[in-house]
Structure of Mitochondrial cytochrome c oxidase subunit VIa:
Amino acid sequence: MLFAARTSVRQLARAVPRRNFATTGESALEKYLAEDKALQHHAAQTTDLWRKISYYVCIPGIAVCVAWVYNAEVEHAAHIEHLKHENGGVLPETPGYDFLNRRAKPFPWGPNSLFFNAHVNKDMSEA
């Protein structure tokens, strides 16, 4: 049964007429050149579209994000300065909770992280 079905599908596929470029009136070269010209035209349109998207969407979006992050960082710096002013010029000590600054094993370069910043992070060499 399966063999008969497979054979009939193969015979049906062979019976489908195939495209012959030489008998359609145009030569294969003319068809190729027309298709190549259409492809280049489409590529130029797509390039122009993405150039416009870059200039009119991405660049203004980046500018808006830069302005938003700048404002957030200015507010954060003002808040830090306010905290310092309230506490005599230094930041208040962070709570010594057990789950903060856990180290399962020491870093190869010392007790602090690789991106240690003394103004923001707790100095683990003092602990």
